Amino acid sequence: MELSILGIAVSLAVILFLALRGVGIMIIAPFAVVIVSLFSNMSPGEALMGPYMKGFVNYASKFYLVFLFASIFGKYMDDSGAARAIAAKIIALIGHKGPMWVLLAIALITLLLTMGGVSLFVVIFAVLPIARPLFRELDIPWHLFVATFIFGIGSISMTMIPGTPSILNVMPMKYLGTTATAAPLLGIVGAVLLASFNIWYMNDQLKRARARGEGYALTGGTKEGEADKLAEKTLPPLWLAALPPIVLVLALNVVKLDIVWALVTGCVTAAVLFWTHIEKQFATINAGASNAAIPIINTCADVGYGTAVAATAGFKAITEALMSIPGNPIFSVTLAAWLMTGITGSASGGLGIVLETLIQKYVAAGVNPELLHRIVTVASGTFDAMPHNGVVITTLAVCGLTHMQAYKHVFWGHVVGTFLVLLVLIPLGIALY
């Protein structure tokens, strides 16, 4: 058994080592399963074709359509110019009042767009061409864009605000029978606390940058000409741009449609309303579908690895140790989510592993499903944003920034901020549920 536990530890170390060197999880996960099997007296072939593929396929069967239609919806919001129309209106209202107002405006834009079901990768391309000229005009250090962007796309809209169609908020519903508005008070309290922390952090960093004499410095990413070219596109009016996200959120939380049908409703609404703003409908649909492929396969690979690990004697011993941690079981499930998401560098992948392999044990132990839903979701959006996280790498690359220049904003605004909020939410949740 000790050798099996060692194998799990070695496989996790290999995942972290290879991920930090740019190797994709589609390659890493099967390799890590082989390591686990060799230490656990299992046949590598049987481990790969058995529990690994079982976990891979089970996750795909539950969430492939969610990823597919969410990606298509995001592509409609991108190609139609709707995401940029919403961003431009907010900037026009509050973005020229000063540097701190610009940071708050960018955070609000990203928050509203992600809450409306728009992909993180769509949001950055919608916001960047609008933010750059403002940062340049007001001489705001460009690295602070990451602080405000991460604030908007991070755990508030991903995991905390009740009713958001975020993949992370939807995933527990399939395992716990809960709704997207599970434990609403916890989510609202968490969102207010995290927003307060991030506003304080951005203001503090802005003051420190001013004291150092830092100003705007063009460091790559979207070029000036590209931003101007994007600005030339005729955008839909604000009321039209906002309708599909509103329809999606209402379909999910008021009509109580299944998340897949809510997303389909959003896609159909976008297709009809943006008909004249989309040059090639099928090109948008195909691109959206293609964009879903890598995220879903990566997450399936993560979950498959977790399922293979769950078949070992070492994992059973680890589970028993987690379940025997003194106090409320919510502490141990939080620890499990932190470990899995931190190592895999993926909130959805780490959460998928916990849901697939552990969550029913906590339900059987009598933990309230709504409390489980909210806490495990928020926990998955804490240590996921390690340096090897895909969203972090993509965001920095698109912005033309390095980890050295801007990763500290991700760490403080997302990782530390959400960790501190959880220290409040866990005892509050135990008291309420």
Structural notes for this entry:
By secondary structure, the protein is mainly α. The protein has one domain (2-432). 78% of the residues lie in helices and 0% in strands. Helix 4 (82-94) packs antiparallel against helix 5, helix 5 packs parallel to helix 7 and helix 10 (184-211) runs antiparallel to helix 21 (403-432). It is globular. The model is unreliable at 220-230 (pLDDT under 50).
Total number of domains: 1
Structural class: mainly alpha
Radius of gyration over C-alpha positions, nearest whole angstrom: 21 Å
Largest sheet, if any? none
Along the chain, the helix and strand elements come as HHHHHHHHHHHHHHHHHHHHH
Q: What's the number of helices?
A: 21
Please tally the β strands and state the result.
0
Strand content: under 5%
Into which percent range does the helicity of residues fall? over 70%
Shape: globular
Low-confidence stretches: 220-230
End-to-end Cα distance, whole Å, is: 36 Å
- Mean pLDDT, to the nearest integer, reads 87
At a glance:
The chain has one domain (2-432). The chain is built from 21 helices and no strands. With 433 residues, it is mainly α.
Secondary-structure map:
Blueprint: H1 2-19, H2 25-39, H3 44-79, H4 82-94, H5 99-115, H6 120-137, H7 144-153, H8 155-160, H9 167-176, H10 184-211, H11 224-232, H12 238-253, H13 259-273, H14 281-310, H15 313-323, H16 330-344, H17 347-357, H18 359-364, H19 369-380, H20 390-399, H21 403-432
